[in-house]
Amino acid sequence: MNNHIAIKNFVRMCEDGWNQGWHERNGGNLSYRMTKTEVLDCIDKFDMSSDYKPLGISAPNMADEHFIVTGSGKYMRNVPLCPEENICIVRIDETGSMYKVVWGLTKGGKPTSELSSHILNHSVKAELTDGRYRVMYHAHPENVVSLSYVLPLNDKDFSRALWQSETECAMVFPEGVGVVGWYIPGGTELAEASSEKMKSYDAVVWAHHGLFCSGVDFDSTFGLMHTVEKAASIFVKVKCMGGAKQTITDEQLVRIAESIGEVLNPDFVDLGKEA
Ligand SMILES: [Zn+2]
């Protein structure tokens, strides 16, 4: 099972996140919606005997899907050492409101406490992208969290701060980033607030907590997390050096996105105010 291509890619991303310092203790979680072929490749290893449990949310378009997810309370740093003890595959029932573990967590445990958030976000993104998006990733990158103590907690201020901190941000996330306020981790309120933002963005900042990213595959999702955190770290450094003396103008931000055929979110630039 550990040689299954989806499991191998999943484990690599857990290790990469740990190496970045984004997963202290049991922080962070990852989920991947398997393709039909990937499920068929390993369905003979599944144990279907456990009972379905309520997800706490309803996602009818995720009915009968299979997800690889990290375990609740498990440490990212341990995933590469023993995947079957620290991650699992969950199957969603035919209503999209119940789940059961069909593989993994061999020494006991449950899927991530953010499972409802992940499944709801998968549901939103699958609907919007005709099923192309398959990865949801939550981490605790320290510079992004730091920003949530100094910037106003709204989409525009965060998006502009990040775009202006590193030129390629306007290419990587031209739609900007969403921001949700503080919520209890693992709760339905956070799941719902986050999935509402996922309708407009691929990255959502959880105030004083971390970042949630989505994407079509492991590379793009990890890359998005990495890019947002790198920009946040530059923002923090510039603040520490006394603040920006010059920056990328709104007109330049628009041109960056245009250079790759993208459109920068027009709600977040103020072209009329510039000379
Ligand atoms: Zn967290």
Task: Give a quick summary of the entry.
The protein is of the alpha+beta class and 275 residues long. It contains 10 helices and 9 strands. The protein folds into 2 domains: 1-137, Class II aldolase/adducin N-terminal domain (L-fuculose-1-phosphate Aldolase); 141-267, Class II aldolase/adducin N-terminal domain (L-fuculose-1-phosphate Aldolase), CATH 3.40.225.10.
How would you describe this structure to a colleague?
With 275 residues, this protein is of the alpha+beta class. It has two domains: 1-137, L-fuculose-1-phosphate Aldolase (3-Layer(aba) Sandwich); 141-267, L-fuculose-1-phosphate Aldolase. Helix content is 39%, strand content 16%. It is built from ten helices and nine strands. The chain has helices spanning 5-19, 36-42, 83-86, 115-128, 142-150, 155-165, 169-172, 188-198, 218-240, 250-258; strands at residues 29-33, 53-54, 66-70, 87-92, 98-104, 135-139, 178-180, 203-206, 210-215. Strands 2-5-4-3-1-6-9-8-7 form a nine-stranded mixed β-sheet, with helices on both faces. Helix 4 (115-128) packs parallel to helix 8 (188-198) and helix 6 (155-165) crosses helix 9 (218-240). The longest helix is centred in the last third of the chain and has 23 residues, at 218-240. The protein is elongated and about 60 Å long.
Largest sheet: 9 strands, mixed
The CATH class designation of the largest domain is Alpha Beta
Side-by-side strand order of the widest sheet? 2-5-4-3-1-6-9-8-7
Q: Encode the helix/strand succession as letters.
A: HEHEEHEEHEHHHEHEEHH
Q: What is the CATH superfamily label of the largest domain?
A: Class II aldolase/adducin N-terminal domain
- Per CATH, what is the topology of the largest domain? L-fuculose-1-phosphate Aldolase
Helix vs. strand class: alpha+beta
In total, the number of strands is: 9
* Ligands present: zinc ion
The share of residues in extended strands comes to 15-25%
Number of domain units: 2
Give the overall form: elongated
Question: For the residues shown, what is the average pLDDT?
Answer: 96
**Number of separate helices:** 10
Distance between the termini: 60 Å
Calculate Rg over CA atoms: 19 Å
Provide the helix percentage: 25-40%
Residue runs with pLDDT of under 50 for 5 or more positions:
none
Q: Which CATH architecture of the largest domain is right? A: 3-Layer(aba) Sandwich
